[in-house]
Amino acid sequence: MSIGIAHMSCRELVERVTSYFENALTVEDRLRFEHHLSGCEHCTTYLEQMRRTIELTGTLRVEDVSPQAEATLLQVFRDWSGH
């Protein structure tokens, strides 16, 4: 007898990537997440890009970001989040 794993869409994976990195997913969602990665090259690439971004931004200092870049990033975030 095998237990099926419910499908996780690419969008759902993207929405849960932070929780994945923080080990905050339920066991079921972690299995679904990792199962999706095993068959989706695009999401695997996305996950690696996010890992690298986190690694690099850990070395970023406030003074490394120009006021213009900060304003642009904040606007993009506001547009994305609907605020």
| Rough outline | elongated
List the helices and strands in order.
HHHH
Total count of helical runs of at least 4 residues: 4
Taking the sheet with the most strands, its summary is: none
- What structural class do you assign from the helix and strand content? mainly alpha
Q: Please give the number of β-strands.
A: 0
Q: Strand portion, in percent?
A: under 5%
What ranges have pLDDT less than 50 throughout 5 or more consecutive residues?
Answer: none
Helix content: 55-70%
What's the N-to-C terminus distance?
48 Å
Mean pLDDT: 88
Mind telling me the C-alpha Rg? 16 Å
Describe the structure.
- The protein has 83 residues and is an all-alpha fold.
- It has helices at 10-21, 27-39, 41-57, 67-81.
- Helix 1 (10-21) runs parallel beside helix 3 (41-57).
- The longest helix is centred in the middle third of the chain and has 17 residues, at 41-57.
- It is elongated.
- The protein starts with 9 loop residues before the first helix and ends with a helix.
- The model has no long low-confidence stretch (mean pLDDT 88).
List keywords for this structure.
83 residues, 4 helices, single chain, mainly alpha
SSE arrangement:
Elements: H1 10-21, H2 27-39, H3 41-57, H4 67-81
Helix pairs in contact: 1-3
